[in-house]
Write a structure and sequence with these properties.
The structure holds two protein chains of two kinds.
Chain A (H helix, E strand, L loop, with lengths): L1 E8 L3 H12 L4 E5 L15 E2 L8 H11 L6 H20 L14 E2 L9 E2 L5 H16 L2 E4 L1 E8 L10 E8 L5 E12 L20 H9 L3 E2 L4 E7 L10 H4 L3 E3 L6 H4 L12 H13 L9 E4 L5 H19 L8 E10 L2 E3 L11 E3 L4 E2 L12 H16 L18 E2 L33 H21 L6 H15 L3 E2 L1 H18 L13 H25 L8 E2 L7 H4 L1 E8 L2 E8 L17
Parallel strand pairs in A: 1-2, 1-9, 2-6, 9-16, 15-17, 19-20
Antiparallel strand pairs in A: 3-5, 4-5, 7-8, 8-9, 10-15, 10-21, 11-14, 12-13, 13-14, 18-22, 21-22
Chain B lengths: L11 H6 L2 H31 L3 E8 L11 E8 L6 H11 L19 E4 L2 E4 L12 E4 L6 E3 L2 E2 L2 H8 L22 H8 L9 H5 L1 H5 L5 H12 L6 H12 L12 H5 L6 H17 L3
Parallel strand pairs in B: 1-5
Antiparallel strand pairs in B: 1-2, 3-4, 3-5, 6-7
Classes of the chains: A alpha/beta, B alpha+beta.
InterPro entries (chain B): 2Fe-2S_ferredoxin-like_sf, 4Fe4S_Fe-S-bd, Beta-grasp_dom_sf, Helical_ferredxn, SDH/FRD_Iron-Sulfur, Succ_DH/fum_Rdtase_Fe-S, Succ_DH/fum_Rdtase_N
GO molecular function, one term (chain B): electron transfer activity
Cofactor (chain B): [2Fe-2S] cluster; [4Fe-4S] cluster; [3Fe-4S] cluster
């Protein structure tokens, strides 16, 4: 058993920032991560960090753009916190030495991005995430913060009260990938989940293979609701063969989208008559797919993104990384030819329900970054708003977990206040995907642990349960392999729960997920070794993919309207009277339970009135 | 892999405790799993047959724990080729369709996480950005040389990380602006100077290719020296700090060990001019020692 004040799970941007913040507050903090920190997917972020740094810009304008971009499903207190804190957190990175791109006067450069009313995206070439990740890891090394790398966290040790709001998180259980040891980590003050994205639910994604939504699924099974899971962002420009991301910076710098007939379709077909290529991501992704569906796509699959007219010098100065990506992964030199691009899964707007201080409804459990839903992005995240989210909410969660007094949150978590219960008509049974017959189906609260256990005892019991599950998986001699189950879910999600959604498809996806869940009960690990067993690791991840895929699809089926990234064939209107509310899914007795809570549109000094989103 | 049908339940008492419905469900589940697995293997074989090309990979295997794999060996995998397929794609295909115990690190698939540096046909490369079509067959895939093998293609990275940390790899300056909203100024030229050095993804391909590092365990190595270069050349750190960094770099196992063989520069997947950076630091160190320069 390892013991620390604060345990951070995940070592990307949010995790590193949280750990540094907790350390600043004097806490004994440790990071537990399944990858070494510099391998984290934050490193793949390209575009930049939105921060109102310049004269003529203001955090209020940034907040307005964020609320509008979210299609009015962001909570104003969270969006305003993001925009208010981002400038000083961005400059903090600069003070830590981050190699931002520079203007002639030596100040950090900023550029235009989709859906922004001011060019406020601060960047480091087209490798902003890489620079941010490494800069923050350097600060971690400087402070000597302990990292348990290549430890895969599989379970939260949460007390067993009936209502999630009464539960306390005492630590985590993790599995040392190098040796196969399962061990407990007791957290005296709190656990911060910063496990990043869940793109592996889809088979065409910009996300890393490690992005399997572990934190979201773990928190869910421990009793924290998943919020707004149906809102999945599809980035308009990913390379068709691999899903590799081509930054929005290309369009920000003036890149143009063309269809097969060489038409600049964003204008020609009226998708965004003012902003064209710089409309927000959901708008551009739908425009591209509409072109393809109407027969104007290239090879019936993609469109062209042309940046040749920007000139080689400007491309190398600001977008050099894109030349390499396009050449290495698509065989196209974008200085000489347009790049093929199509929409790909990119970001989960939804996630673990938290307030603007990063706290969940379970005492001592926090979340920050992409795995969390505070919610700042609502129905659609603006480009350049993910990196400020990491540093702003990572820091807040770190401070809070370490015991710093925070302003009282305006966002409520858990089933309190003004929520409404709801039902969704599913064609199949939902939930339940335990491994083996005796293993605890619940990955979170140790259901049979006895209510009296707390602290290290409770962590120890969770460790025993997890050892049992892992032994079962390793001892089982035959059955089905995770790769098959994973592939089925990924393909079904890409086919039916993509940019365009319709009722019958969503129901089919639920049937496919059900079948995958049933197969999963017979999953086995072919590799029997305890040493670096990636087969076991991926088998455990696949469980998370199942829960998350189900949540995304259920939320999408229930939301009978068109908002942000969520497009429904049967419902072509945003329906504010009924749907200005967040979708929440709670894991209750092995099944998802659906409920809603209202969106908070009242900000500090103004209320964000929903308006038609035109660009 | 064939799925075995379990024997009849021998122990009567245990048979009694399992309800008939559950037994039936379990049997159905097994049946389905079996069917799926068979279908899957048939599909894999079919795909390999149907592909215009099949690539032949010879992959290094070793697991200290599994008796069959304690003696290192090479396994042959035949992978159906698809336009654009990389080494990493091929390894994943082999793992997911033939042998789930085949082990390698990988994550981002876009040459930024740095976790899948491998020794392919005798050279250090990132699996994810190496096209199969650029390689001659059979493609030999081995773990990085000069590092301990943990299992199959996974090597122990501890030594590499230790060397990286030995150069104080973090920004240090005494002249921060007062305001929390005011940045330090940096000229475009200076940013340009350090730019390539900041691109390191810690894949350790350079360290693995370096003959000197192979013979001198204490040599800082190209990646760590490049990390130091990144800070030493950053005008925001100031002269005093530069002196301090040069002292670290001038130690016995620092820059002077480099024999300019350029192997690090040749294998760097991010095109960082590592050898050049090391030589530049040597020049700085000489200037520093001669003082009158």
């Amino acid at each position: 058993m390892y013991e620390h004040d604060v345990i951070v799970v995940g070592a990307g941007g949010a995790g590193l920032r949280a750990a540094i913040a907790a350390h600043e507050e004097g806490a004994d903090v440790a990071i537990v991560s399944k990858l070494h920190p510099v391998r984290s997917h934050t490193g793949a972020a390209e575009g930049g960090i939105n921060a109102a740094l310049r004269e003529g810009d203001s955090w209020e304008d940034h907040a307005y753009d964020t609320m509008k971009g979210s299609d009015y499903l962001a909570d104003a207190p969270a969006a305003e916190t993001l925009c208010k804190d981002s400038p000083k957190e961005t400059i903090k990175l600069e003070h830590w030495g981050m190699a931002f791109s520079r203007d002639d006067d030596g100040r950090v450069s900023q550029r235009p991005f989709g859906g922004l009313s001011f060019p406020r995206t601060t960047y480091a070439g087209a490798e902003t995430g890489h620079q941010l990740l490494h800069t923050m890891y350097e600060q971690l090394v400087k402070r000597g913060i302990k990292v348990y790398d290549e430890w895969h966290v599989t379970r939260l040790a949460v007390s067993d009260e009936e209502n999630p709001e009464d539960r306390t998180c005492h630590g985590i259980v993790a599995y040392d990938v190098q040796t196969g040891t399962v061990e407990g980590f007791s957290a005296r003050n709190g656990v911060i989940l910063a496990t990043g994205g869940l793109g592996q639910v889809y088979d065409h994604t910009t996300n890393a293979v490690a992005n399997t939504g572990d934190g979201v699924a773990m928190a869910y099974r421990a009793g924290v609701p998943m919020e707004d899971m149906e809102f999945i962002q599809f980035h308009p420009t990913t390379l068709p063969s691999t899903g590799v991301l081509i930054t929005e910076g290309v369009r920000g710098e003036g890149g143009i989208l063309y269809n097969e007939d060489g038409e600049r379709f964003m204008f020609e077909y009226g998708y965004a008559n003012n902003l064209g290529e710089l409309a927000s991501r959901d708008v551009v992704a739908r425009a591209e797919l509409t072109e393809v569906n109407e027969g104007r796509g290239i090879e019936d699959e993609y469109v062209h993104l042309d940046m040749r007219h920007l000139g080689e010098e400007r491309i190398i100065d600001r977008l050099e990384n894109i030349i390499h990506l396009s050449e290495d992964f698509e065989g196209v030199n974008p200085v000489e030819a347009p790049m093929p691009v199509k929409p790909g899964q990119h970001y989960a707007m939804g996630g673990i329900e938290t307030d603007e201080n990063g706290e969940t409804c379970i005492t001592g459990l926090y979340a920050a970054g992409e795995c969390a839903c505070a919610s700042v992005h609502g129905g659609n995240r603006l480009g350049g708003n993910a990196l400020p989210e990491l540093i702003v909410f990572g820091k807040r969660a770190g401070h809070h977990a370490a015991g710093k007094d925070m302003e009282e949150a305006r966002i409520t978590t858990g089933k309190v206040g003004d929520y409404e219960t709801a039902e969704v008509e599913s064609p199949v049974q939902l939930g339940e995907a335990g491994i083996g017959e005796d293993a605890v189906a619940d990955g979170g609260a140790a259901a049979d642990s006895g209510a009296a256990a707390t602290g290290t005892d409770l962590v120890q019991q969770a460790v025993e349960d997890e050892r049992e599950t892992i032994n079962h998986l390793l001892e089982k001699e035959d059955g089905i392999q995770h790769a098959e189950i994973r592939e089925r879910v990924q393909q079904s999600m890409t086919q039916y729960v993509n940019v365009f959604r319709e009722e019958e498809g969503l129901k089919q996806a639920l049937r496919d997920i059900r079948e995958a869940r049933e197969l999963y009960q017979d999953v086995f690990v072919g590799d029997k070794s305890r040493t670096f067993n990636t087969d076991l690791l991926q088998t455990l991840e696949t469980r998370n993919i199942l829960d998350i895929a189900e949540a995304i699809t259920l939320g999408a089926l229930a939301r009978n309207e068109f908002r942000g990234a969520h497009w429904r064939k049967e419902y072509q209107e945003r329906r504010d009277e009924e749907w200005l509310k967040h979708t929440l899914l709670s894991w209750n007795d092995g099944k998802p339970e659906l409920w809603y809570k209202p969106v908070i549109l009242e900000g500090e000094s103004k209320t964000y009135e929903p308006k038609v989103r035109s660009y | 892999m064939s799925t075995q049908v379990p024997d009849q339940v021998e122990d009567e008492s245990s048979a009694e405790t399992v309800p008939a419905g559950k037994q039936k469900r379990d049997a159905k589940k097994r049946e389905r799993a079996e069917r799926v697995q068979e279908q899957r293997e048939a599909e894999a074989a079919e795909k390999a047959r149907a592909a215009d090309d099949t690539y032949h990979l010879k992959v290094f295997r070793y697991d200290p724990e599994v008796p069959d794999k304690q003696e290192p060996r090479f396994d042959d995998f035949y992978v159906p080729y698809k336009q654009g397929m990389t080494i990493l794609d091929a390894l994943m295909w082999a793992r997911d369709h033939y042998d789930s115990s085949l082990t390698f690190r990988h994550s981002c698939r876009q040459a930024i996480c740095g976790s899948d540096a491998l020794f392919v046909n005798g050279s250090q490369r990132l699996g994810c950005k190496t096209q199969l079509s650029d390689l001659s067959e059979p493609v030999r895939v081995e773990p990085l040389p000069h590092a301990d093998v943990v299992k199959d293609l996974v090597v122990d990275m501890e030594h590499f990380y230790d060397q990286m940390e030995a150069v104080e790899p973090y920004f240090q300056t005494n002249s921060l602006p007062d305001g929390e909203l005011e940045e330090q100024r940096q000229t475009r030229e200076n940013r340009e100077k350090v730019k390539m050095s900041t691109r390191c993804i810690w894949c350790s391909a350079c360290m693995s290719s370096c003959n000197i590092a192979a013979g001198d365990n204490e040599y800082l190595g190209p990646a760590a020296i490049n990390k130091a270069y990144r800070f030493a050349m950053d005008e925001r750190e100031g002269e005093d700090m530069k002196q301090r960094r040069l002292e670290i770099l001038e130690q016995e196992h620092g820059v002077w060990r480099c024999q300019t063989q350029f192997s690090c520069t040749e294998v760097c997947p991010k095109d960082i001019p590592l050898t050049e950076h090391i030589q530049e630091l040597k020049r700085e160190a000489i200037k520093n020692n001669l003082k009158f320069w």
